Task: structure prediction
Amino acid sequence: MKASAHRQVTDKGLARAKHLRQTMSEEEVMLWSRLREFRRNGWAFRRQAQMGRYTSDFLCRKAMLVIEVDGSQHDLPDQINHDSKRDTWMASEGYQVLRFSTGEVRTRMDWVLDTIEGTLRAAS
Result:
């Protein structure tokens, strides 16, 4: 992560990330249990990782990859705008963002994992 992003990490943000780790959605837990399988290939993920003023659901620093699991609230206009600004900031820091809906995680896990794996391979 760029030094500029690191300097923006705050105690409040770290406390929020800790709270989010403790209250992960069912779909986030499902994906987290599968993301850990990528470790055997050298791809370590962190969950609810603080990135500047934002918190990513899952982060692989080595691949510069952020994975988001979006519930229905992400379909609301204000949230769409917020997510767009957030994704733009993350891209400016060199990160690629993959977004999956909770429904995709729940019903299309193999496709989600294949998409992530393809992105990881492209990053190496």
